[in-house]
Design goal:
alpha+beta, single chain, six-stranded antiparallel sheet, globular, Thiol Ester Dehydrase, Chain A, 146 residues
């Protein structure tokens, strides 16, 4: 899967940048806080997240758990979808097809999610997770109900 250039997506207003910079770091006990996800960049229809390596993210075989990769794929699309709205709106994942490409055992992770098509009630997205040195680990096609 070819990851798009973030500069091909429109920049957010300063107020929207400030809003999404708080995602996962506020006082509300959200799952993204539990996992430790950090927002690195949000543009209209685009988001890049990072997750520092922790040994408790490993599965019994010593690789980063597939659920962690799936979480990053899904979570990277949340700001990408939300960035297209002027006001907060509810939306949720209704479909997610993951392809695991490789494994990693001791690396920080980066996830990128982007909207490929947006309708009034549905948004289609793609996402990818790779290691800090660029090794691709997983890709996904996701659908969100708005």
């Amino acid at each position: 899967m070819l990851i798009p250039d973030p500069h091909s997506f429109e920049e957010l207003s300063d107020s929207k940048k400030a809003l999404w910079a708080k995602y996962g770091s506020g006082k509300d006990p959200l799952f993204v806080q539990l996992v430790g996800v950090a927002v690195e960049e949000v543009r209209v229809d685009y988001c890049r997240l990072s997750l520092p390596f922790r040994s408790d993210l490993l599965q019994a075989g010593g690789a980063i758990h597939g659920g962690v990769l799936s979480t990053l794929l899904d979570t990277s699309c949340v700001p990408a979808v939300g960035s297209g709205f002027d006001e907060a709106r509810p939306y949720s994942t209704i479909s997610m097809h993951v392809q695991f490409l490789s494994s990693a055992s001791d690396s920080d992770l980066t996830a990128v999610g982007w909207v490929t098509r947006r309708g009034k009630s549905i948004a289609f997205c793609n996402a990818a997770v790779h290691t800090a040195d660029g090794k691709p680990l997983a890709t996904a096609a996701l659908t969100f109900k708005i």
